[in-house]
Amino acid sequence: MKHEKSFSCEFFPPKTEKGAENLRTTLAELATLNPAYFSVTFGAGGSTQEGTFDTVKEIQKKGLSAAPHLSCIGSTEDNIRALLKSYIDIGVNRIVALRGDMPSGMRETGEFRYANELVEFIRSETGDHFHIEVAAYPEFHPQAPSAQVDMENFVRKAKAGANAAITQYFYNADGYYRFIDDCEKLGVEIPIIPGIMPITNYSNLKRFSDMCGAEIPRWIEKRLIGYGDDKASIVAFGEEVVTELCRKLLDNDAPGLHFYTMNQTGPTRTLWHNLSIGC
Ligand code: FAD
């Protein structure tokens, strides 16, 4: 199914004043590319609900569109209801709805178990106010008992009322297309937008990938390891590999791209220019 293409960027809430200053600069620079929206993560790496809200507010104040990530695990209906209202009050009309992960040491799962329940709750409380994005895993969620069960769970989440999905990052386009085919066979027709992680550093990428179950193909990993401390070669190789991946995706009807910017301008802007997005 063909969809209009959407290009967007993701930030995490800064934890220090220096980080906040850096993000202001990044936001101003990336805003010149005119992305559809800037999403802001929630809870990842220990960031707080307030951090997400403040960052979203700052983006909205500049007349840009922000999409807060909202995770429901450990939360109550009252909390989520209040948060939705605060977002409506500052003009937000997009949400990335997630289950999230239980913070270590916390035991109570709260009133929501899975993201499909959050999507249903947002729809029942706020109707069609929010454009809801959910997470998709073409290489499957690390906790899923099987690929097939994970697909069924994704379908349940999409059918609960999501408008679109953003994928975990991947470097193998075939897995993405197989996932899209399976979704279509199961009656899911919402756009599933590839999440794109620029490659600028091996150890961070390896750590993230091990955590979230994204595969670094052997041929990429071996080369990155081989570059050692040669940062310039890692960046040049990463740019080439990720540009190729994005080009392949866009040439084959991917409904846009969502860039995990890591709060940096350079890698995302370079990819955007290489791909002539918006030209
Ligand atoms: P779900 O869709 O609920 O799935 C979680 C697991 O439960 C899967 O294994 C699934 O198969 C299973 N499952 C789902 N529904 C059911 C059901 N009804 N019954 C039984 N099993 C079920 N993390 C953060 O902390 N903050 C962020 O801001 C953040 N942003 C993200 C953005 C994107 C685009 C992506 C891809 C991930 C993001 N994450 C973030 C990571 C995410 O929170 C974790 O991957 C989390 O473990 C799962 O969240 P989910 O919404 O995908 O969960």
Residues in β-strands, percent? 15-25%
Biggest β-sheet: strands ordered side by side in the sheet: 1-2-3-4-5-6-7-8
Order of helices and strands: EHEHEHEHEHEHEHHHEH
Task: Give the proportion of residues in helices.
Answer: 40-55%
Separation of termini?
A: 24 Å
Please write out the topology.
Layout (H helix, E strand, L loop, with lengths): L5 E6 L5 H15 L6 E3 L8 H13 L4 E6 L5 H13 L4 E5 L16 H12 L4 E6 L10 H13 L4 E6 L3 H13 L6 E5 L5 H11 L5 H10 L3 H21 L4 E5 L5 H9 L5
The structure holds flavin-adenine dinucleotide.
How does this structure look, described?
This protein is an alpha/beta fold. The chain has a single domain, classed as TIM Barrel, CATH 3.20.20.220. The protein is 47% helix and 15% strand. The chain contains 10 helices and 8 strands. The protein has helices spanning 17-31, 49-61, 77-89, 115-126, 147-159, 173-185, 202-212, 218-227, 231-251, 266-274, and strands at 6-11, 38-40, 66-71, 94-98, 131-136, 164-169, 192-196, 256-260. Helix 4 links the parallel strand 4 (94-98) and strand 5 (131-136). Helix 4 (115-126) runs parallel beside helix 5, helix 8 packs antiparallel against helix 9 and helix 9 crosses helix 10. It is globular, with a radius of gyration of 18 Å. 40% of the residues are buried. The mean pLDDT is 95. It binds flavin-adenine dinucleotide (FAD). Residues 41-44, 69, 71, 96, 98-101, 114-116, 135, 141, 143-144, 150, 153, 156-157, 166, 168, 195 line the site of flavin-adenine dinucleotide (FAD). The site of flavin-adenine dinucleotide has 25 residues, from strand 3, strand 4, helix 4, helix 5 and strand 6.
